[in-house]
User: What shape does this take?
Amino acid sequence: METLANYINGEFTAPSSRNYLDVFEPATGQIYAQTPDSNSADVDTAVQAAAHAFGAWSTFSANDRSKILHAIADGIEKRLDEFAEFESRDTGKPLALAKSVDIPRAVTNFRFFADHILEFETESILGGNGSKNKIVQKPLGVVGCISPWNLPLYLFSWKIAPALAAGNCVVGKPSELTPYTAFKLGTICTEAGLPKGVLNIVHGSGQNTGSAITSHSEIKAISFTGGTKTGETISRTAAPQFKKLSLELGGKNPNIIFADCDFDTMLATTIKSSFSNQGEICLCGSRILVEDSIYERFRDAFVEKTNSLIVGDPNENNTDLGALISKGHLEKVLGYVALAEKEGGTVLTGGEKTLVNGRCAGGYFMEPTIIDGLSADCRTNQEEIFGPVVTLIPFSSEAEAVTIANSTQYGLAATVWSGAPEKANRVAEQIDAGIVWINCWMVRDLRTPFGGMKNSGLGREGGDEALRFFAEPKNVCTAE
Ligand code: TXE
Assistant: This one.
């Protein structure tokens, strides 16, 4: 069995406590590796390495930092197939998805910020009024990046690439459930010529390692993606130290489908926005609001298409849905189906654990599930499930659709389907969400701000927003 190690100051090291956590392959239910459960002493060693490295790294030109980030992207790209296999094994997601989405996007994240830092204005001058103001964007120092299990390298790189590009040194922690690609990233960084200590990857649980990062007094900012409850805990720890916080939290995203949409395109995309990555994407649409004049037509076609999806071994090319991340998570999601039934819902399809024969017999698989007949304010329609479960809710007017869409504590993403651009834009404007897609889903221009409103988060990632988050503007005002 493989034993993973922390990557601190450019070296692979064991946790000082010698405590390890089991790493499971969700598709088989088998333990295949051990990952460090690092403590505050390990985090402190990483912070000291990062603080030491910051002196030199912050003086690198943007161009030199950019070259190293491109070299990291090259390193991952060269091993794309291997990385995709690691990611699929760790998460249970279809290998084809890891190959076409997760790992290519991690490569793009490094490339994007390698290029974007060259266009980012780090120095500007404002004259007039008898003074000259020189405004400089300075890197913060040591920053913490904490990421979840659903899109492991994709979301880890989405944080560390802008942090490094802006001249910071990083102490990063991937989810303890999916540590493998972050572990492998260490070697790529060394090969790419990233100086020692600039990126430190410390593995472990949220309780031990995560909280040691968020409470460390020398860490200036925390960029976090994960559950809303965890975001709350992190805020409580970090706020009294006046750390900058970027929080990307949960969602309960509405898909609003009007009768005048392009039905076939909408249906094909709604299948993806419901069940891609087993529904374990914070941007998946989990409440499908359908105009009542097409409700039955949509329901029947959607159920039929869902029934043709294949739940199976992530390594098989024709698999649409792989395994859920863990036994506990599978039980949680199945628990929501039971709750929905108690709340008066009808399971139109799915709702059960799926048994996959052969090597995956012990895996955490579940049928894609559609439920209707629930009120918009019941728990099933209010709480994030984060699995292959969607609900259908009919609506009869634009105003009602907007009211239902905005009726949860979340505000991450939404989708509007309509052939009438004015109406679609009018509705999009009224929805409380960080991103609204009209007639599409998951289309991303990385220059645009990304994040959630309400309890879906704080701050924005992407483009200039991310680079500004990892910088402190300083103004030097000279009398003229
Ligand atoms: O998230 P956690 P989990 C949601 C989803 C899911 C729920 C729980 O609803 O069911 O979150 O998933 C680290 N201090 N999303 O348990 O616990 C943890 O080790 C510092 C939505 O994975 O929030 C991991 O690295 N760090 C989300 C990271 O935080 C702590 C994607 C996320 O774990 C910590 C994933 C602490 N006290 C889950 N506790 C999205 N919106 O993309 C945990 N961590």
In short: The pocket of TXE is lined by residues 146-150, 173, 175-176, 205-207, 210-211, 214, 225-227, 230, 233-234, 248-250, 282, 384, 386 (CB under 6 Å). The mean pLDDT is 98.
